[in-house]
């Protein structure tokens, strides 16, 4: 996927995440969009730094890098949403290209892809971006709404109150 596609995905996903977490549509939602969109967009662009040095789709397109961005906020208290951008970059590169990425680099240089990937220059690339973004938002919506409700119900049943 190209930079424009990664930025589009990050911005639309950030708006969706902000609306899911602050659905009132007021100033709090706007602040959430900004608070989420900047780090998610930076994270979505970060893996392509390896085009300047290293090996593209290997050096910064792997699970150890994603893990680093996931745990970084635990220790330093900032960059909470950057890992989301990195993860969405990986999803787009897996689904929005035919080449794939080296998920286990530097331990294994093999590149993983999915058989439905399209070329970044394909006329279907924009559609892939929209489908991937919709799937990401569906997963986020399930995590924000459905799973807490189910956990609550299971807790009530386990305690004998329901």
TrEMBL record:
Keyword Transferase listed: no
Transmembrane annotation, as ranges: 7-24, 30-53, 65-84, 124-144
GO function term, MF aspect, one: hydrolase activity
Pfam families xrefs: YdjM
UniProt cross-references to InterPro entries, sorted A to Z: YdjM-like
Keywords: Hydrolase, Membrane, Transmembrane, Transmembrane helix
Protein's name according to its UniProt entry: Membrane-bound metal-dependent hydrolase
Upper lineage: Archaea, Methanobacteriati, Methanobacteriota, Stenosarchaea group, Halobacteria
């Amino acid at each position: 996927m190209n930079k424009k596609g990664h930025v589009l995905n990050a911005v639309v996903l950030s708006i969706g995440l902000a609306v899911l977490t602050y659905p009132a549509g007021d100033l709090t939602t706007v602040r959430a969009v900004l608070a989420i969109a900047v780090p998610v967009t930076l994270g979505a662009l970060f893996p392509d730094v390896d085009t300047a040095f290293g090996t593209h789709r290997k050096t910064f397109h792997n699970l150890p890098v994603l893990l680093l961005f996931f745990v970084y906020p635990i220790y330093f208290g900032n960059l909470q949403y950057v890992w989301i951008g990195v993860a969405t970059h990986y999803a787009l590169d897996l689904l929005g290209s035919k080449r794939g990425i080296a998920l286990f680099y530097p331990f294994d240089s093999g590149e993983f892809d999915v058989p439905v990937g399209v070329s970044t220059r394909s006329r279907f690339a924009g559609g892939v971006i929209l489908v991937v973004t919709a799937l990401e938002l569906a997963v986020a919506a399930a995590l924000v709404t459905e799973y807490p409700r189910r956990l609550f119900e299971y807790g009530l049943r386990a305690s004998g109150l329901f």
